[in-house]
Amino acid sequence: MEGIPVSETADIRHDWTLDEVRELASLPFNDLLFQAQSVHRRHFDPHAVQMSTLVSVKTGGCPEDCAYCPQSVHHDTAVQAEHMMDEATVLERARAARDSGATRFCMGAALRSPKPRQVTQFAGLIREVSALGMETCATLGMLSETQARELKEAGLDYYNHNLDTSAAYYPQIIGTRSYQDRLDTLQNVRNAGLKVCCGGIIGLGEQPQDRLELLHTLATLPVHPESVPINQLVPVAGTPLQDAAPVDPLDFVRVIALARILMPASYVRLSAGRTAMSDEMQALCFLAGANSIFYGERLLTTPNPDADHDLQLLDRLGLRPAAPAAAAHQA
Length: 331
Prior knowledge:
36% of the residues lie in helices and 15% in strands. It has 331 residues and is an alpha/beta fold. α1 crosses α7, α2 (29-43) crosses α8 and α4 (116-130) runs parallel beside α5 (145-154). The longest helix is centred in the N-terminal third of the chain and has 15 residues, at 29-43. It is globular.
């Protein structure tokens, strides 16, 4: 079976139909990966992997009821609500991330939406981290356009706000905010001139169709997210999804390949869940077009692979961390 033909000048599209996405998804595994790798090489150095570090600056106590999240006040987990991390500690973590090879520092806070005082606090952190020569990213929940502009003026590069899953399956996972709320935040972030980091989570109990619909939604946005994190659920005791069935590794690789084909110039990031992935599975993900990882010991409240192991794996695969100047792709 032949894949959907692409060309160097026409493969960045925003008019994908769901039927086209289904056709791609039905390709034999080798054909899908071949097409994904071919697209990847037209837009990126195939041997460079962008390294980001994610730090929870304000942990726990979130009023949202996301079924996967141990930081929700609706779930009885081991995560305790904490005050916002002080500036000196944040900068210490940022310097350590930079010195270990990360080029982007992502700051997360368990919030529904930041209060004005919190936006001002984060603006200060963003200025300080930017001064270290790192790209900055924040995930603080829903943002108004005014809030997004304040963060942009402080030097924020990226804002993360995931769609998580398809619009159809979303109400099974989250009840405290709507899918449209998420889309509105993405538009507010775009209107403010920020780059977008937006992806989803695989393994929430969704059907294969939901994964295709999620990718279709992302790929038909007026501008593709510059970064597309693909998370594998990390089941946490005390959350409604604590007993969720594991994801088939090859199905996960297929999602990576589809994301690469549908959004050719976006960074596709292996995010949460890598501790449960074998080296071989991660190698297939890189082959399928993943070219970014979260790098460091933790992702908010869940474990992440050891940094030395990550570097050893990249070396075994003939890959290398992208240098700061090389991290920006040529669109």
